[in-house]
Amino acid sequence: MQRVTKRxxxxxxxxxxxxxxxxPLLATSAAHSQSHLATPVLPGAPDARPATVTVSGGAIQxxxxxxxxxxxxxxxxxxxxxxxxxxxxxSYGEDPGPLLDEAGKLGLKVIAGLWVxxxxxxxxxxxxxxxxxxxxxxxxxxxxxxxxxxxxMWGIGNEVEVELADGSAVWPEIEDVAAMVARVDPAHPPxxxxxxxxxxxxxxxxxxxxxxxxxxxxxxxDALPSVVERARRQGWExxxxxxxxxxxxxxxAAHAPWGAxxxxxxxxxxxxxxxxxxxxxxxGAGAIxxxxxxxxxxxxxxxxxxxxxGVWLEAAEAMAQAWGGQPPGGNQAPRIASLRVAGxxxxxxAAWAADEEGAFTLDAVEPDGDLMEVRWFVMAESVDxxxxxxxxxxxxLFPDAVRQSGPSGxxxxxxxxxxxxxxxxxxxxKGAGATANMPFEVR
Length: 443
Known about the structure:
Helix content: 10-25%
Keywords: Signal
Organism: Ancylobacter aquaticus
CATH superfamily of the largest domain: Glycosidases
Number of strands: 19
Signal peptide: 1-33
Shape: globular
Protein name: Glycosyl hydrolase
InterPro entries: GH
C-alpha cells in the first residue's frame, strides 16, 4: 500500500497473567542472530565511510558482515529505535538527506525510497518524456546520496502495480530505475516493493526486472507467516524484506453492518506482532513495521505505532522482544483487555436511537502500576477512504458527545443519526500508551 504522503491506575495481577499467556516467547533464533549483526559506525566518527552492501544468496551483508533488516517505516522520532533493537528505517520518496543524517547519528541504516509514479495517480508510462524526466530526477537523488554512511539500499517504488488490470507497463520502468541504480551506485543494491505476492507478481518482476537484487513485499495480518514461502514458490531466490507489515489491514477486518471495519486494540495488535516478527526472523526475512508515526487511515490509530504526541504503544514492546532490545527505561505500555458495550459485553458494535445514549465499559491495566491518564472522544466514521493508503481527511471530532467518562467507561449522547466511533487513549506518564475504539450507529 502507499502509506504516506509522497514528495511535495490499578494493577490486576490476574489480568496481566492472562494477557501474558497470549504472548509467545521470543524465538530462540531471533535472540541468537542479534550477536551476528555488523557493528554500526556512526557517521560522525573519524572512520565513518560509505558502506558496501552486498547480496549473498538470500542474505544481506554490510561490509562483509551479516545484516538483519529490523525496523520501521514512517517519520516519527528515531531516538528510541536503537534501544528496541531496530537497525533500519525505510523512506518512500521524499528527499532522504535529513533522514539519512538523523538515522546515521543513531547507527541506523536507511532504505531510501525512490518514488516511481503510479499510473492510478496519473503516471503515463506510454509517454517517453515522462519516463525520461522521472529517471533523470531519480538518478540525481542516487548521485547526491550514494556515499552517505547511513545508506543501506535504494527502495524503488511502492506498490506501483496496484489497481492495474495489466501491470506490464510498470515492470520495464522498475527495471530501468534498478539498472540506473546498479550503474550509478553499485555499492547499494536496488529493492522493489510490491503489494503482496499476488499469484504471479513476483515472477513477473523477477523476469522483467533482473537488476532488482532485493524483493520488498508489503504484507499484513495472517498473510505474513506464509508470504516468504509464497514468494519463493514464484522463483525468488534473493533476500526478502517485508517492507510494510502490521497486525491487520482494514481490508482484512470484519465489518459492522454499515461497513465500518473493526480495529484491534493496541494490545491485540501487539499480541499479533509477537507472533509475526519471530516467524519472519526464522525464515530469514527482513521486517519493517508500519507506521512509525501517526496517520489517518480509516482511523487515526489503525496503522499508527505512536500517538499524536509521540507516545509509543505496546507494539514497540513486541518489536523489542523480537529484536533483542528493551523499551525505553524498561517501561511497559498500558494493556487494554476489552472495550465493550455496557450491558451487552459480547456485542461487536453499539447502536441506539438519537434521543437515547450509549454506554461503554473499559477494562485496562497498567503493568508497572503507574497512574493512567484516560481520554475519551468521538469521531465520525471515515467516509474518505483512500486507495492503497493514499492520504485521507481526518473525520470530524465531536468534543461534546462524551458526557461522562473515566477509567472504567464512558457515556455518549447528543448526536445526530449517523455512523461514529468512540475512542479511548491511555497514557502512563512515562512515554507509553494504549488505544482502542469501537464503531457505533445513532439511528
